Amino acid sequence: MLARLLLPLLLSASALQAAEPVDRIDRAAVVARHAVRNTGLNPESALTVGNGDFAVTVDVTGLQTLERLYYDGGLPLETRNTWSWHSFPNPEGLRFEDTLAPVPFHGRQILYPIHQNTPAGRYYRENPQPMPLGQFQFTLYGEVLRSEDIAGIHQTLDLWTGIVTSKLLVRGQPLEVTTAAHGSAAVLAVQARSPLIASGDLQVRVRFPYAYRTSIAHKPPFIWEQPEKHRSTLTQVAPGHARIAREADGTRYDTELRWSTLAELVSAATPQLAAPHDYRLRATTGDTIAFTAAFADAEHPAPNETVDSTLASSKQAWRDYWTKGGMVDLSAATDPRAQEIERRTIQSLYLMRVNYAGSFPPAETGLQHLSWFGKHNSEVYVFHAAQFYQWGHVDLLEKGLAWYLGQLPQGIAQARKEGFDGVRWPKMSGLDGRPTPGAINPYIIWNQPNPIYLAELVYRAKPTKETLARYGELVAESAKFLASFAHRDSATGIYHLGPPLKNVSESTSVELVRNPTFEVAFWYYGLQVAQQWRQRQGLPPEPKWADVIKHLAPLPQQDGKYLEIEGIRNVFGPGKRGAPSSMLLALGYLPATDKIDIETARRTFHAVHEQRGVDGGWVSWQMGQGALTAARLGEPERAVAILGNTRAAAHFMPSGYSRRPRDPEGAVAYLPTNAAYLMALGLMAGGWDGAPAGPAPGFPKDGAWDLRAEGLLPLP
Q: Which residues does UniProt assign to the signal peptide (predicted)?
């Protein structure tokens, strides 16, 4: 059974090349079809440039000029990296220990940080949080450029190069701006040309907020009105160069400005300006301002980059991304949904590299704006990271997975504190890896097998001794926790999960959640994979893991359909709406195992599908979830219909972002939607172990889906 379940469908680079059609996809043409073009002011069409560790979102001016308009109506305009973090002062000496409370756990007590709404709970939820970096705006006659000053907008984000070109009229005068982020470093490049620059009337403003107003959990605004709480100091000023040292509550970083055109930086230390943290870059000769802004700290020195070198770096990095990974081409498909599905796919591929291809996995809105205090929510990380494997970018998967390797000692210590073996991964944490207090956070468990799943994907792409050595401890310690957490009923010998715990939907009291279908299936799969890793390493099966696998509780059912949670019955039936769907993750997100019955899964899917209102009921990241299950069940027409949903709650903005339906004004760039979409489309086009023979096994064979795919790796 083990060999049948877990034998990877391994594709070497040579095999991949041989499998690709002789008539290769014109990748540049596919990507070019979905360039983002703005011809008017649309706050939902802000454009983000970046590299996974650094990102900048701009408006139609090519900078962040219209801050309030975009914040109120769509996507905030921010400058972020993954490594600058900030904590507010703690004058009361609040302790993390004050967030802890004993929770009964099968005859013993575990200290969980569940006191969310106490002074300590609020402080440690909000701190640390990412540090907002500088904001870049145009000023006209000394005031920030207004929307009524702007006309004639023609703006393009070239996805192939990652470069934004903005052409517009300012009070009737032309302005052309080029904006890009470096391919790997925290460097922004801007080149602006206008007669208004030559006259000195149009300048570039660089200013720095204190921090985020974290009392607003999702999409917090900047704090501008407390200038006394932070410092911006010009530590170097030279022709063509200035360094601004930033400090706020112990957070320190530098902003290195370099300009290649004749210009000068005017700061608050001069009579022209009285506001601290506020600078103007103005041309002294000519109609052009060309500058770079590099962000650095002690561990991340600022590279000496010019506008030209930054643009070249952006072009090279994006060319590598688009040419070395997977690609699909739906241009020959005659189904009317094909064009929108392709757009969502290509723009999602762009956004995932911008927001998630870094050394620390950020919150669910990536680097576009702050949510969940910027903290990593590890339960959805497989969606964010698995698509990198599927689309041929295993290096980017490993870049984020390296953070987990670094957190192993801390996670092992946390498991020991709680009385478990192995490693306890934090559900929600900042760069420091400390668990975040919350009424839900400590009870989430579906994050725990994720590192096993991801390590297995790396091995499928790189089946070497080096891969086993690099991730062997990660897999083993994660599996030890799975086996330790499962509670054995001494009377029956059955291992159960919970209570107390929260399952995927988080909607049921922790005291009532026992043996949720997906979590049990994931425990089974994770331990099976871990045993396979032991076999690859020449080790015998682990007896405790084998015992848990053999005696793990059955998946709960009623009337031939899977329940979400054991004992929570009657979720299907006449008059019921909005059935839960997390149990479908047991076949879709996960491959078929001996734990799942295919026909029971099919009946469950059909019941959920009907109660959700058929195709239009699938929105947000559940679009990917539903399509994964439909495809694995051999129902490609349904999978396509789910991915092609165009109802308002399933809307993808012009630049590819999607609002979270449960919080449309907070999580306005909800990236689990994009990631799950890519995971589903990648499976449908690239296949899975045991998929039907032939290309694109998850698409209908009705003649309307003439689809070409290359470079995709199949899921288990």
A: 1-18
